[in-house]
């Protein structure tokens, strides 16, 4: 799934003031990290991930691992060591941003 144009700009603007919800450190891409990331993104729809200096993980490595783990997670933006990810929430009560995207 690819998000382009106005929808991408909207998601980037919403994530601009967010603090990173999860940090990838020296442990790298563990199963535990991916499970935590999935729990957070299913609840919040948009999350910001920070890659710490001591990690050997590159942003593209994380994107590839997420595509293998859950193909519904969409990479929105990467700036330096910060990444923004989006996934439509499975529960209707957690949908905030996806409702706005459907209106566009």
Automatic annotation (TrEMBL):
InterPro entries: RNA-binding_CRM, RNA-binding_domain, YhbY-like_sf
Keywords: RNA-binding
A GO term for molecular function: RNA binding
Pfam families with a match to the protein in the record: CRS1_YhbY
Superkingdom of source: Bacteria
Residue ranges of every copy of the CRM domain listed in the record: 1-98
Gene3D superfamilies tied to this protein: YhbY-like (3.30.110.60)
Protein name: RNA-binding protein
């Amino acid at each position: 799934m690819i998000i382009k144009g106005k929808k991408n700009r909207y998601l980037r603007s919403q994530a601009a003031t967010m603090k990173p919800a999860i940090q990838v450190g020296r442990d790298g891409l563990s199963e535990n990290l991916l499970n935590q990331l999935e729990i957070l993104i299913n609840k919040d729809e948009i999350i910001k991930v920070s890659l710490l200096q001591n990690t050997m993980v590159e942003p593209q490595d994380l994107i590839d691992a997420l595509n293998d783990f859950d193909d519904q997670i969409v990479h929105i933006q990467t700036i330096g060591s910060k990444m923004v990810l989006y996934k439509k929430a499975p529960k209707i009560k957690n949908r905030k941003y996806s409702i706005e995207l459907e209106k566009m």
